[in-house]
Amino acid sequence: MAVEKGKGTNVSDIEGEDDMDEEPGEVIESAPPLQVGEERVLGSSGIKKKLLKMGVSWETPDFGDEVTVNYVGTLLDGKKFCSTRDSDEPLTFKLGEGQVAKGLDHGIITMKKGECALFTLPPDFGYGAEGRDGVPPDSVIQFEVELLSWITVVDICKDGGIIKKIMEKGQRNERPSDLDEVLVKYQVTLVDGTIVAKTPEEGIEFYVKDGHLCSALTKAIVTMTKGEKVKLIVQPKYAFGEKGRVDVATCGLPAVPPNSVLNIKLELVSFKSVIDVTGDSKVFKKILKEGEGAFVANEGAVVTISYTARLEDGTIFEKKGVDGGHPLEFITDEEQVIPGLDRAAATMKKGERALLTISPEYGFGSDVAERDLAVVPPCSNLVYEVEMWDFITEKAPWELNSQEKIDAAGKKKEEGNILFRSGKYQRAGKKYDEAVDYVSEDQPFGDDENKLVKALRISCWLNGAACSLKLNDFQGAIKLCSKVLEFEFHNVKALYRRAQAFMETSDLVSADLDIKNALEADPQNREVKLLQKTLRQLQFESNKRDVKLFSNMFAKMSKDSSVPMKVSGNC
After folding, report:
1. How far, rounded to the nearest angstrom, does the alpha carbon of residue 508 sit from its chain's CA centroid?
2. Is the pLDDT assigned to residue 358 strictly greater than 60?
3. With the C-alpha atoms ordered 540, 546, 551, 552, is the resulting torsion angle positive or negative?
4. 8: pLDDT confidence band, cut at 50, 70 and 90?
5. 108 and 62 in contact (C-beta within 8 Å)?
6. What is the rounded radius of gyration, in angstroms, for the C-alpha atoms of the chain?
7. % residues pLDDT > 70 (the chain)
8. pTM of whole model > 0.85?
């Protein structure tokens, strides 16, 4: 026997009442767990819950979920008016849709699987002034409820177009993204049970971004975890729409009529994560085997890898560490291998195996590359199957003592200088930034070390500003020079380079001030004098433009004022 609904549950009715700040049961989350035999009022609803038997796990159902329960409904005098136990048929219904007394809905969302509880419902949350068979009007009633199970129900697109019922939960919490390759099994039926699509026993693989079968499938897959099994109810707009689908003769599958609702049993067997390594869709990494731990090689690590490198047509042009060969050892971010392999290796964990797809820009570019086993033609896309054997990362600043930090900063600065002289300004700038990290202001140093540390910082900021100017990053140059001037307000190099950046951003007033301060500190500095000469030329040209602009403006105003006003009116 089903529980006859009283006032149908409408969650918005409760939330909208001015005298109620929370739904019944909400305060339970922050209150101590109920003990067997203990009774508590749920929120300000007046609903009482007495725990009769503990449940398992920590999860509870939510509105929209399909629950299966056993219950016995009684009046306060013990008179029974409904029960599933009499028929030995548990009740399955959807929470929050008015299928039962709304107090029962709000009580069940506080229960765990296997839990048994006694709920006492005031009339407003029971059958109200109308009552029902066996329940007089305005009666306080009780339900002894056992929560047997529930199915989580999700409205994926929030429009009722794809309803997902979770039949079996998956493993872990990770979900596939649009770039990932998934392995799924599914069976698709019409409402009458006709099978219209089905995967082979082993399932089917595809990339989520490429789509498959119908849009509902990929929209559902990105909400699932590995091993999860679901049932989907799909409306036509997310299935085959108004046109339907013609017979698939090669598969022996029937047509899908126009405007058909589909039922899909779907399992996400597994997926392989695909990462856009460079952020511009030119180096992709598909993880074939997860690595160990949480740490990746990162930039500056000494890595040991094995790989097989192929062209798109499958031609192998290089092998390292396979078939008895020696693995490759290199330092990441040092241009010792092609950029795509370098960048991808820095993202890998120990033991990870991955398939890299590398565009020419991150490969050998437009050059012909003669490798061990074949020649790589110009502008070739490359495929590397790589395994990370091991890596040794640089020690972080907090792992070093004061002298080691100073030594590491000095080494990074010298590496930056070498790169700068080679015209590799972006990499040089990174080295200067790394050097400053070792001797940053939040690192503790002794009094005798502070002078050296300060000089290192200032030198790296100045060199970094020089890199920024070469890269046309004028705001970056201004920021770095300003850091120097906070410590040495008459540092000529900082004033000179900041003035250059101000001139490039057309801030001639700030540039003029920096040049004057630089000449005040070093009146004979030839480079500053030359820069001042350039500034004067820019100021002259700017003034000339301003004069022309204002002349045109005044001429237009004079012309407008000479035009007679037109007066409208009756003759």
Report:
1. 43
2. yes
3. positive
4. very low
5. no
6. 36
7. 89
8. no
Residue 404 backbone phi and psi in degrees, to 5? -65, -35
Residue 497 burial (CB < 10 Å; 0-12/13-18/19+)? Answer: buried
Burial class from Cβ neighbours inside 10 Å (0-12, 13-18, 19+) for residue 511 reads buried
Is the model's pLDDT at 497 over the cut of 80? Answer: yes
3-class DSSP state of 414: helix
* Residues with Cβ within 8 Å of residue 465, at least 6 apart in sequence: 476, 477, 480, 481, 484, 494, 497, 498, 501
Using alpha carbons only, what angle is made at residue 504 by residues 500 and 506, rounded to the nearest 5 degrees? 115
Tokens of 396: 């972080």
153, amino acid identity: V
Q: Which amino acid is at 527?
A: E
> Strand 316-320 relative to strand 302-311: parallel, antiparallel, unpaired?
antiparallel
Q: Report pLDDT digits (tens) over 101-147.
A: 889 999 999 999 999 999 999 999 999 999 998 999 999 999 999 99
Task: Assess whether pLDDT exceeds 60 at residue 571.
Answer: no
Q: What is the pLDDT of residue 21?
A: 42
CA distances from 352 to 232, 286, 347, 385, 565 (A): 35, 11, 10, 11, 82
Q: How confident is the model at residue 6 (pLDDT cuts 50, 70, 90)?
A: low
The amino acid at 53: K
Q: What is the DSSP string of 103-131?
A: HHHHHHTTPPBT-EEEEEE-GGGTTTTT-
Beta-bridge partner residues of 188: 197, 264
